[in-house]
Amino acid sequence: MLKRIIRLIYILLGATVGFYYLPLLWDIFNWQLDRSLLFFMDVAIGAIIFWLLSLALMKPTLNVIHQVEHDLTSKSPIYIFFGALLTILGLVLAVLISIPLWRTRIPVINNVLPILLMVVFSYYGFKIGTSRLDDWKNLVTQRRNKEAGGPHAVIKQQDANYHHYKILDTNILIDGRIYDLVKTGFLEGTLLVPNFVLYELQYIADSGESIKRVRGRRGLDILNKLRKEKIVPIEMYDGDFEDIPEVDSKLIALAKKVDGVIVTNDYNLNKVIQFQNVDVLNINNLAKSLRPRVIPGETLKVVVVKNGTERQQGVAYLDDGTMVVVEDGRYFMNKPIEVEVTSALQTDAGRMIFARPLHSQRGINSQSPAKDKKDKK
Fold it and tell me: pTM, whole model, 2 decimals?
């Protein structure tokens, strides 16, 4: 159907061109023909020529149409509306400026310059309308909520320690724990997901590597669950920072613009954000701070799973992965045992707990010879 419409447009365009310009060709060759016959011949020749052109140019024309359709459907209605509105205003302004130019008799000024003005003014009108979307939306919402401050009012910072917008990055959506955190109700305000983060998720989900595909689709699933269940308000940010190529830098610029805080689990991004004087919520730091703490004298029930680095030591792990080094633990390999915490050590790799069995020293010594004989055997 689309091909037929395109071919018909080519034929109508050819007929029009033939009607207006082929008579000039006949005048050059001084061909004197009947006017009615000349009319049908001009229209027919122009239509046939452009029909042949349509056969050769059909594929490039379809590619251009599909590309335009893809670009338009991928943009938000606000982007298209303000882009079209400012383009029309630019054209109107160019026409008003061109009225006195058309009345002049200078060849270039009365015909070429008005066309150039229309092209330039429409281009800059479109750029202003699409690159300043936030300013246009703020202008509309501020005027709408000028007196009472309705639900669409721009939210300003109410306190130095409170940020209404929580900006989600790509890693936090792929991680998935943000969904569980939101369900607890500890995260307040509005979740803000920029379009450039969504596009990055889509790019990862369409990757040729299976691992990346799974990660990207997981991020999209988490985002859809957050929007569907409506546990907290979630908004999409339609704007972009075209002069900034990196997604992480765009997140920082967005946080400064909307006075938001970035929610992430990326260690390197966390350091960069802090250097840029932007607040950040690192979910890994939250999980680390919520790990159960133990104090000397407290008893734990663990299972020794391997030998330690020192003689007679055994190593066990808590449910959260914390390493427990048990004195004389090698004698209780793969057995549940109650231990008493003696000390705890915090390192860059994590937390280590040192403990000893609650059994008496005599009981351990009594098992030692038997164990040693078994080892010798």
Answer: 0.45
